[in-house]
Amino acid sequence: MAVEAKATSSAPRTPVWRDPAIRSLAIQALLLVVVLGAGWWLLDNTRQNLNRQGIASGFGFLDHTAGFAIVMHLIPYSEASSYGMALGVALINTLLVTSLGIFLATVIGFFVGVARLSSNWLVARLAAFYVEALRNVPLLLQIFFWYFAVLRALPPPRESVTLFGAFFLNLRGLYVPAPVAASGFGLVLLAGGVALVAALGLGLWARRRRVATGQDFPAAAVSLGLLIGLPLLVAAATGFPMSWELPALKGFNFQGGLVLIPEFVAMVLAISLYAAAYIAEIVRSGILAVNRGQTEASLALGLSPAQTLRLVVVPQALRVIVPPLTSQYLNILKNSSLAAAIAYPELVSVFAGTVLNQTGQAIEVMAITMAIYLSVSLAISAFMNWYNGRNALRER
Amino acid sequence: MDAQGTSQGPILPPAGVVHGPLGWLRANLFSTPFNSLLTVLCLYLLWITVPPLINWAIIDATVSGTDRTACAGASGACWTFVKMRFGQFIYGLYPIEERWRVNVVFAVGILLVLAALSPRVPGKLWSGGAFVFVFPVLAYVLLGGGLGLPVVETRLWGGLMLTLVVATTATVVSLPLGIILALARSSRMPIVKGTAVVFIEVVRGVPMITVLFMASVMLPLFLPPGMNFDKLMRALIGISLFASAYMAEVIRGGLQAIPRGQIEAAQALGLNYTRTMGLIVLPQALKLVIPGIVNSFISLFKDTTLVAIIGLFDLLGMVQTASTNPEWLGSSVEGYVFAAFVFGCFCLAMSRYSQALERRLETGHRRR
């Protein structure tokens, strides 16, 4: 006992400023003070500046009348609508470009990525050229190219470029036929819904039967047949209660049909072609990451080449592909904000541009804009993480 | 082997393989009916796109003359536009008699970068250090003026010069900031880590354009009335903060690749945190992430074009304003092609360098 006590007392005491626990507390306290102090300083400055300029604060402005028109709105909107509605319109336009961009970029990217690995020398070279050319040129330049050099240079409505007599491309945008529902169309939609439910049930049943008995059922083919066949059958029985409204030249412009404004077309083209170049590289590296032995083993087990690709190669390649693909999808969302440069009415150009200029409430507007981008980003990555989790390697 | 060859006759190539150009064609372009179809389709695609492009860009193009009338009758590209505006595309509105200063900065910068990046030149520490610490001061004095040189306001800066100034400044500033953020993020102190995580994730979650908007519209609101920066400075602050969040993630990747044993060994030798990081971990981690840093410089270089949206005229902004000038209306395609060519050359060269570097650095670290 005595010896121990002596040993403790004679051991060199750590000075207070060298104690890791105390030191870490001190550093953190200091950081907290600095961060809070800087934040308070900035906020105080802002409050004083806003007071001096006579700008209101708070989110009340969202109910005020906006008083400006928006070229493209998928929900009812007019100059008499509120700033809140303008925000809604802008958000929908952003999401539209993003989702269309994600879809097209994925399709083109997979196609080009596979083409880069083609045994055909010419195809592989062309795909490589596509990737290098599009990846090394800034996206904004590509948007400007499509908008100012291609779409703005199109002929006026009277000399439109016509495709199949139904699609018209001119200076004002791309005119496409619009579906018009007649009475009885509800039945067709209902049939589509029934077919969807039936296909899902069939898939579940087929999987359960395969696990239980080992017998395979061509669920994919039958589901496809159901999804196309049932609505078609009902439509035929009710006498096709649907028509296409063709755009037609009346006076100086086209009437009827759906119009895609040039800003939208340029944005979707540029963003999906640009992202496709990156996705192609991701897909290529994913496929290359699957060991050749896997393909050989699968063929040796008697699986057909198509089955090998579907059941062996793609699921393993997806594990490598999905995480970088997620960050590409997030990039597409963030890059959709570049549409502000060609005045496509999306979140940044409408809300952080026009609304901010009209109300002057910079803090609130920027906070809402950033919060929306952050939450959509989080939603996309949450979904992709869930998808990745389903495909992930299940280790013990 | 040899004995086998002589006793059983020469080793013959496998049957059914044709060598030479014909064999190559058959193996690479016409191996299956589907491949033959693809080849024919690709050749058709090339046939309808390449000859008209060459006609437009070279054969029917106009280079002579000094204004649009020179291109009046020609069906091809009007390179006269690019020729006449070349100075603006490179230097912006920088006074013509002062352009030599920009050239000196370009030359010194290129020399230092080449010395720091090419494998055979010795003295990396000196050239790299000079680029990070001495070069910015030199560039600031030469470009901005002072010390006897006439002052050139930043609103006159533009073109490729502005693009390079913005991208280089942001990278140089984001390196130390990124290192601090990455270290903070891997810290065990919850408040330090939390602050870094919130900053990095918020900045990475929003588009760069909102950060630029913040910097150009809101920075004046945040600061006390007397304190203000010019437009370029505000953009530089915004882009540098934006770039440091990305840089932090690149560097964190490198920090995570260093085995824990290195830190433990350093601590066992009695080194404190600063020395462990500064002498043991960071030198190894930074060497690993040089390709990542080059890659983020490439994307920053391309993202610099966004400053056009807040009213600064980088290369793309200069091309855009020049082609909307009534004097040169309808020449936008030539301008875009020129800008795309410049950006393409820079980015391609840098990405090739980073790929070569990855191959060179990989050998030392891959487990075999």
Write out key terms for the chains shown.
heterodimer; A: 396 residues; alpha+beta; MetI-like fold; four-stranded antiparallel beta sheet; two-stranded antiparallel sheet; globular; B: 368 residues; mainly alpha; 2 domains
Q: Could you describe the 3D structure shown?
A:
The complex is a heterodimer of chains A (about 400) and B (about 375). Chain A is globular. Among the domains of chain A are: about 1-55; about 85-165 and about 260-390, MetI-like fold, CATH 1.10.3720.10. Helix content of chain A is about 65%, strand content about 5%. In chain A, a hairpin with a 3-residue loop joins β1 (about 160-165) and β2. The model of chain A has no long low-confidence stretch (mean pLDDT about 85). Chain A has helices at about 1-10, 20-55, 85-115, 120-135, 140-150, 185-215, 220-235, 260-290, 290-300, 305-335, 345-360, 360-390; strands at about 160-165, 165-170, 175, 180, 240-245, 250, 255, 260. With about 400 residues, chain A is an alpha+beta fold. Chain B folds into two domains: about 80-95 and about 150-365, MetI-like fold (Orthogonal Bundle), CATH 1.10.3720.10; about 95-150. Chain B has 15 helices and no strands. Chain B has helices at about 1-5, 20-30, 35-60, 80-90, 100-115, 125-145, 160-185, 190-205, 210-220, 230-255, 260-270, 275-290, 290-305, 315-325, 330-365. Chain B is globular, with a radius of gyration of 27 Å. Classes of the chains: A alpha+beta (about 400), B mainly alpha (about 375). At the A-B interface, α2, α4, α5, α10 and α11 of A face α3, α8, α9, α14 and α15 of B.
